[in-house]
Amino acid sequence: MNDMSANAVLQSRQGKDDAWVPSSCAICYGNCSIVGHRVDGVLVKIEGNPESVLGKGRLCGKGVSGIMTHYDPNRLTVPLRRTNPKKGLNEDPGWKEISWDEALDEIAAQLRRIHKEDPRKLVMHRTTTITSSRTPFQGFAAAFGTPNTGAAGGGLHCGNGAHLLSGLMHASWSVVPDFKYCNYAIFFGASKGHAAGHSSGSNMALAADARARGMKMVVVDPMCNFAAAKATEWVPLRVGTDGALALSMCQVMVNELGVFDGPYLQAKTNAPYLIGPDKLYVRDPATKKPLVWDTAAKAARPYTDAKSADMALEGDFEVNGVRCRPGFQLLREHLKKFTPEWAEGITTVPAADIRRLAGEFAREARVGSTIVVDGVTLPHRPAAAIAFRGAQGHVNSVYNFYAIDLLNELVGASDVVGGCLGFNPACHGFPETGRLRYVPHPDPDGLMIAGMWMGYHYPYPIAEPKLPRRIGLQDLYVMGMMSPFDHSDDSEELWQKFELPYRPEVMLNFGCNLVMSIANKDSVARSLAAYKFIASIDIFLNETSYFADIILPDASYLQSTDSRANFPFLFNHPAGMDEWCWPVRQPVLPLEGKQRRFQDVLLDLADRVGIRADYNAAYNAQMRLEPPYRLEGDTKYGFDEICDRELKNNFGPERGLDWFKEHGVIKWPKKPQEVYWRALVDVRVPIYWEFMTPLGERSEAIAGPRGVKIHREFFDPLPDFLPCPSHTCKKEGFDFYAFYYRDVIHANSFTTENAWLDEAGQLDPFSYTIAVNADSGRKKGLRDGEQVWVEVENGRKVKGRVHLTQAIHPEALGIAGCAGHWAGKGMPVAKGKGVFFNDLLELDATHASPVNLNLDLCARVKVTPV
Amino acid sequence: MSVRWDAVVGSSRFWTEPPRPTAKPSTSRQEVASPVAVKVWPYGTLASVLAQRPLELQLPEGFSVGDVLDELSRRYGDEFSDLVIGSDGRKFRHCRVFVDGLPADDVETPVRVERSPALVEIILLTAIEGG
Questions:
Q1: Is the peptide bond before B103 cis (omega within 30 degrees of 0)?
Q2: What SS3 state is found at A763?
Q3: Tens digits of residue pLDDT in B37-68
Q4: Which of A131, A377, A624 sits opposite B103 (nearest CB)?
Q5: Buried-exposed string A491-515: b where 16+ CB fall within 10 A, e elsewhere
Q6: Which of A674, A863, B21, B89 is the 20 to 30 A CA-CA neighbour of A844?
Q7: pLDDT the model gives residue A15
Q8: Given this model, what pLDDT does residue B88 score?
């Protein structure tokens, strides 16, 4: 046990308030551990908490600037009710201050009404910035009885593909190279390790140390920004073509070089499973288990009955009169069409470079090698291919990520030393209590089911598609998490076709600026205006507030408590060998005005609606509270008490909230068997997605008769390159592929209001400008610094200052983050800063993945001087 | 040195699960002599489906969580079972069941009647998440 010392971080001088208070950041969803220095009631500094694994004392520019968000004079301090019943992007709501009782009574009346009529009429959105808000909000939704929850652009932009694939193949929310041991990492549109995203603070240090150690880092990205600028090699490619490059690298490895990890494929994947002409597993008639060809027995046997070493990966067999081949052979044949020459035409990456990169990756993987870590002998594959938002933010989201992860699977570099790691897919538990133990396990087909997940809809097994009863239609599009159909212009048409028996009427929104964070603002605005009632809990008035009926002033993260600021471990906790660490969030400062913490507001609402017992039950289920820490019946608990119970439940009766407030974190050592669990846990991952064929058929059987097309080319068991809508645009003058990227100094849509970050943004040549390749721009007569219009095919356009640079692909146009606020009353610092990229995106079925509903986040654009 | 993955799996007991108790009825279904009471508390969506809270069931001694779900499915039909049980016959992961306050992830979990009646709580957690 290695608890941190109270005296190290919490000091108090006699009679004077001078304290360093350990807590957790929430300026981005990285939620790194911090200490806030408070002097005489004033927060004077925020630093990283050196006692925590989450950042180890390091904090990014956003984190140290949190002080300015907290003290922003535009923070909401009182509940507000609109007086103007008309809602629109330019309609002043006419805010009037009201009391908390008035506000909550009014919200509760709306909730009671729809709870009686149909609880599904409630839609709940919450920001991803405060990761731990998922527990109170999902719990409230479960207690109320609505399945309609969302995170505005969160998930819809970044997660439907990345998290699905990371879950399916690594039992985790995201993936990173095993920085400590990796020698060759290839990043496909991924910011991991470069001051953004999950475990951002920790990964920054790990990535930097890895580069200093000599890890070669190849960054595949249309733009040479935060990751590529630090890379050994930048590989610029056409926007949205990452999957084509990865498929071609697989082709080179398997069919040109003949490099793959046979023993891994035999034992840890479904590569040996026999596939029939119907694209399905050939199954044992008695046990229904998938069959493999046992080379020792010279017969087909259930996969559980043959030794992995005897399972054929290639060959042509006949079993019970059915011609069949192992999945690996089908993959190998499938890959042949993805030659480097073909990929060069798609990606613009020269064929010779593709061959070189594939060769380097295959060689550096050191297939067959082992290493001893803390006395345990483990497979050693010091090469990793990772991806995130950039590569997966397209209609071909699933195949793009699937193809990239195949690079790891083919050489066995999956959750082993030096390879591609999920973020902590397995934990042996807190040693003293045995709590928090989870590990992936197999389904009847031997395929991996994650041991823990962020939500309760696991990525595998794939759910059975049904006639949709959620407004986002995820019960039909079962591989999607977030949905564009919550707000798209075609949603009503789809709801009618699927005979959705209700319509959304009431929204509870926590911190989402939906108008800005999804896509085309007019589409989102129309959907919000259709709600009968919207209540928003927020710290600022923003563009979405224009559609709210009631605004509730929230506490900032510096005024909040949370027992699970960084749980589950598979979301934000750094991967790789080190320590387990559980930090909490606690108030560094008191509430101001009439601000209240959202968790307590939801508990209050539950009482007013009459669902407290249900909400208590939801907390019990989510936190897995056991006696004596369970919440009983409809007893009224405050959120601090719930946090206290969760901490004692996990860490013992002596370690409640007060203990954690004093110590900040608890830590215990990781074991190599936890970090490199894959070798030790008998699960397989699918390199052949057999479940796609029946999924496509079943989805089509529901959608087809109702006039909704299911594009079956997205449901093949093996990955393909399927172009984005932007790739098919032939309109004259539309020469650029526009995309957005995460800015290192901004998070989501609200940090342009932060005075320090705004100042940094103004000084940075890219944060508030439109990046265009210098040669391409000059050919079009563009001058550096001039104002331009960026226009999409249907005429919608955004304005900004062009920045000509060599650090971007000749066909690409890059815009940072989610900026360009126009509602100045609530966020005057942010107003007019940067460019509102999302307004260039279409929000409809045509621009969403038919498999996982991910929006296509690139657009073909024309650039003209203003 | 080359290492076989299956050999590595075979040599480690680190992740070996502790033996899990299974439901062993003390009397067979055919000779049910003493049905015992169980109180079912449905929450959230299931509260409106089952209409009654708590709901008292009588089940043969030695019953499991699966038996409780089967009985509720028999009484309330597809409206209940479609929410709780998948087409493969397995309980959904987002359907959480607690027996006398302890989580019962597996439908095989026996409902031990140490106090009468046993308490079974059921809730559906919201199924989707982003990040």
A1: no
A2: helix
A3: 899 999 999 999 998 899 999 998 889 999 99
A4: A624
A5: beebbeebebeeebbbbbbbbbbbb
A6: A863
A7: 67
A8: 81
Structure tokens at A643: 């946090």
Give CA–CA dist A503/A628, Å, rounded.
41
| Token pair 């005057």 in the structure block, residue | A828
Exposure b/e, A629-647, CB count within 10 A at least 16 = b: bbbeeeeebebbebbbbbb
Contact check, Cβ <8 Å, A263/B12:
no
Nearest Cα neighbor of B102 from B93, B111, B94 is: B111
Which of these ranges, A284-288, A780-784, A824-828, has the smallest mean pLDDT?
Answer: A824-828
Strands in A407-501 per DSSP E:
420-422, 441-442, 448-449
Alpha helices in A348-387 (DSSP H): 351-364
Amino acid at A803: H
Residue type present at position B68: V
Amino acid at A450: A
CA distance A504 to A519: 20
CB atoms within 10 A of CB A102: 13
Give yes or no for a cis peptide into A628 (omega within 30° of 0). yes
Contacts of A797 (CB under 8 A, 6+ apart): A789, A790, A791, A840
- Structural tokens at position A250: 């697989």
Q: Could you tell me if A69 and A27 are in contact, meaning their C-beta atoms sit under 8 angstroms apart?
A: yes
Residue A781 Cα distances to A814, A864, B116, angstroms: 18, 9, 84
Its pTM stands at: 0.95
CA distance B98 to B42: 11
pLDDT tens digits for range A509-538: 999 999 999 999 999 999 999 999 999 999
Query: Are the C-beta atoms of residues A483 and A152 closer than 8 Å to each other?
Result: no
Q: Across the beta sheet with A184-188, what order do the strands follow?
A: A233-235, A216-220, A184-188, A383-387
Q: Please give, rounded to a whole number of angstroms, the shortest distance from the CA of B33 to a CA of chain A.
A: 32
Helix (H) or strand (E) holding A683: none
What is the separation of C-alpha A464 from the centre of its chain, rounded to a whole number of angstroms? 23
Residue type, A745: I
Nearest CA-CA partner of A689 in A411, A250, A275: A275
Tokens of A767: 């944060």
CB B46 within 8 A of CB B73: no
Residue A252 DSSP code: I
ipTM, interface predicted TM-score of the complex: 0.91
d(CA A625, CA A623) in angstroms, rounded, equals 5
CA distance A661 to A10: 10
Query: Is residue A136 a contact partner of residue A599, using CB atoms and an 8 Å limit?
Result: yes
CA separation, residue A626 to residues A252, A288, A583, B105 (Å): 53, 38, 21, 13
Q: Is A518 in CB contact (< 8 Å) with chain B?
A: no
pLDDT above 60 for A2 = no
Q: A29 — contact with chain B (CB < 8 Å)?
A: yes
Partner residue facing B101 (CB), from A368, A626, A680: A626
Beta strands in A412-462 (DSSP E): 420-422, 441-442, 448-449
Option in B5, B102, B123 nearest A626 (CB): B102
Contact A182, A382 (CB under 8 A): yes
Residue corresponding to tokens 């790739």:
A727
Asked whether the predicted pLDDT for residue A824 surpasses 90, the reply is no
- CB-based contact A718:A301 (threshold 8 Å): no
Question: Is A831:A542 a contact under the CB 8 Å cutoff?
Answer: no
DSSP single-letter state for residue A733: T
For residues A313 and B10, the model is more confident at: A313
Contact B12 A439 (CB under 8 A): no
The structure tokens listed for B80 are 């209940």
* A744-788 residue pLDDT tens: 999 988 999 999 999 999 999 999 999 999 999 999 999 999 999
